[in-house]
Design brief:
This protein is mostly helical and 394 residues long. α1 runs antiparallel to α2, α1 packs parallel to α13 and α13 crosses α14.
């Protein structure tokens, strides 16, 4: 499932990159390159993937006890916070400086991007009806989605193990989302705030991933694995085709919901087909680093830290004398390659180091951050001696 997760990350990256390059006279990237799945649409599908993966690890790795829940929380903490704090340290140091960051904000506003919990609510409601993006320093705006993820992680060990609770919460979340859509459909900015940033109205997407795992598990008792996997591929194809034919901007269109449901139904089979593939797992492991460092990579391309480098890249693109469409395509391709290279280096070096430092800081034992490399890469990288593990299941 790694390539699929990386594809969703590309949808977020290209949408954000387009906002940068339009200020330099370049056309925004064509949404068709990511099958018109971008920004908010990609984030919602990430929520579905997260719901499925957390459901899977809770069912297969962690005991249904308080101790099991605590082990789950520890693993999620070490997966999310070390790299996030490392990125946050870099962006604040390179843009504002820590003294200025704390001097210009209240204690809660300054700590919000550090602790992450509630940061999604802060973005949505601190300056309501306008979204407050000053909650995060420049380059770290994607952090609000981690606030939503963490809230789901807190609920997951208790919610996902109760069918009654799951059904009740799904119905409540869907009903709330429907009511909010009716109330605000004439006011786009408020509609987006209440149906995209408001966690209770997006919780249904996380739970949709969980329910797809349950449905697949029950279906496998009556249908052969091959047939289920073929059906999963078909569902994914239909979901992507529907998203391409009817792109969603408000995230409330009927076709959007149908495509998300089809996407969720596809996940268990796609996961089963790819979970033992080292390359797919490695690409999945790059998803989190590239998601967090995507804006920093965009800074490299536009020359924020190194003006001469950014100027050279953009002069090279302009020197082709291609149409604006193809110049944008070339510049975006360079950016994606740069983002992949940065994510690769961060995954191999910064992420293990940051995780080790946080473990020591909090006195956490019994957890190792393992860098899983495909065989073709393990012969050439300093992580060659580390064993391969399944992606995203630590």
């Amino acid at each position: 499932m790694g390539p699929l997760r990386l594809f969703l990350a590309a949808g977020v990256l290209t949408a954000h990159f387009g906002l940068f390059i339009k200020d330099y006279g370049f056309a925004q990237p064509d949404t068709r390159w990511t099958l018109k799945i971008q920004a908010g649409h990609s984030v919602v599908l990430f929520y579905v993937v997260s719901g499925f993966l957390m459901s899977y690890v809770l069912a297969n790795k962690y005991k249904a006890t308080t101790g099991g829940a605590l082990d789950f929380y520890q693993a999620r903490f070490l997966r999310i916070f070390p790299l996030w704090w490392a990125v946050l340290l870099v962006v604040v140091w390179s843009t504002l400086g820590w003294p200025q960051w704390f001097a210009t904000r209240s204690v809660w506003e300054a700590l919000s991007p550090i602790i992450l919990f509630g940061s999604d609510w802060n973005v949505a409601f601190l300056t309501y009806p306008q979204n407050d993006w000053q909650v995060f320093p420049p380059g770290a705006g994607v952090g609000w989605t981690l606030g939503a993820e963490l809230t789901f992680y807190v609920l997951a060990p208790w919610l996902l193990r109760s069918s009654t609770a799951t059904i009740a919460v799904v119905l409540a979340s869907v009903s709330l989302r429907l009511i909010l859509s009716i109330l605000f459909w004439r006011v786009p900015n408020l509609l987006y705030t209440w149906t995209y940033f408001f966690f209770p109205a997006t919780l249904c997407f996380f739970l949709l991933g969980h329910m797809s795992r349950i449905a697949y598990s029950h279906a496998s008792k009556f249908v052969g694995k091959t047939q289920l996997d073929v059906l999963s591929v078909f569902f994914l194809f239909c979901s992507l085709c529907l998203s391409y034919a009817f792109p969603s901007y408000a995230l409330i269109e009927p076709t959007f919901y149908i495509s998300v449901i089809l996407f969720a139904l596809a996940l268990p089979g796609i996961f089963a087909l790819t979970k033992n593939n080292p390359l797919a797992n490695f690409l999945g492991d790059l998803t989190y680093p590239i998601y967090l460092t995507g804006e920093l990579s965009a800074w490299l391309i536009i020359g924020r830290p190194f003006p001469s480098f950014g100027l050279a890249v953009m002069d090279f693109v302009r020197s082709t004398n291609w149409t604006s469409y193809w110049q944008s395509a070339l510049l975006t391709s360079i950016y994606i390659l740069c983002a992949l290279a940065v994510a690769f280096l961060v995954h191999l070096s910064v992420e293990p180091l940051a995780t080790g430092l946080v473990r020591r800081l909090f006195g956490i034992r019994g957890y190792r951050h393992i860098v899983a490399l495909p065989n073709a890469l393990r012969l050439r990288c300093w992580g060659a001696r580390t064993p391969t593990v399944k992606s995203g299941l630590n």
